[in-house]
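Action item from last week, closing it out:
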Amino acid sequence: MRVLPLFLCLLFSASVWAKLPVFVSADWVHQHQENLKLIDLSSRDQFQKFHLPNAIWVNYAWLIKPQNGLQLSGGPDYMAKVLSQLGITPKDQVILYDNQGNLDASRLYWELKKLNHENVALLDGGSVQWVLKGYPVTQKMPKIKPANYPTPSSSSTDQLTANKQEVIAAIHNKQVALLDTRTKEEYLGSPKEKRTGHLPGAQLFPWQAAVDFRNGYQQRSAQQLKTFLEQVGITDKNQEIILYCNTAHRAARLFPMLKSLGFEQVRLYDGSTQEWSQDKSLPLTTGAIQ
C-alpha cells in the first residue's frame, strides 16, 4: 500500500531536480521555491527594500578579484570559497536573479557553469517579473549557514573563457565571431580618446538587445534573438563565439542568452577592452559598424 505514495514522491523529486533550462519562469520558481536556493544580485539598497522570500544577497563585486589592475574572475578556488561562505553546495538547485534583466546575475551564472554546477538557472525577468506576477516579497534577512563547496577536480574555465592570445588568434580567423556587447557609441569610438573603438572584425550586439524591458524585463523571444543574430552574421549554433565589453560585465549577459538558444561554443573574454587597451601593440578599429 505504501509503494504508490513512495513512487509519487520519487517522481515529484525527479521532476524538481531534472536538469534545468537556462531560464525558468516566475511561476516555476513560485511552485518549487522551498526546494531552491535563491540568490539576489540586485543592489544592496534594492535588496533591503524587498526581495524574494529566503533569497540571499550577493554583491556583484564579490565575483571579481582584481589582478594587475584588471577586474577579472578569481577562478575556481576563489569562487568555491565565496559559494561556501554563502552556504551553497554543488548539490543545490540555485536560481539567480536581479532587477536589471539579469545583467549582474548572468555573471554568476557563468561562474557556476565554469564550476560545472548543473542545477543553476536564471529567473526570467528577475524580481521585476516576480512582482508583476503578484508573488510575495519580503524585507526579512535570511540566516546564512556556511557550507562546503569544494573546488571541482576539473572545471570548464578553459572552455568558457577566452584569453588575450586566443582573441588575437580569433581576429584572424573568420570562423570565430566576436561580439561587442557595449553601446554603439563605445563601439564606434571617440576621436577625443587615444585608445578607443572596437576589436577588429567584431560585430555590435548591445547587451540590452537581449532583454524585453517592456515585457517584465524578460529575455526576448527566441525568434527575435535569432533575427538579431542573423543580422550580424551568426546562424550556425556550432560556430565559436567570443563575447566582450569593458570588463566582461555586460558581455556576461549574452552568455546565457546564447546558451538558451542552443549555441554550444560560447566564451567570455574576461579581460575585455580593459586588458586589450593597455597593450598598445594591439589594434582597435573606429568608425562605422561593419
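Closing note: The chain has two domains: 19-132, 157-276.
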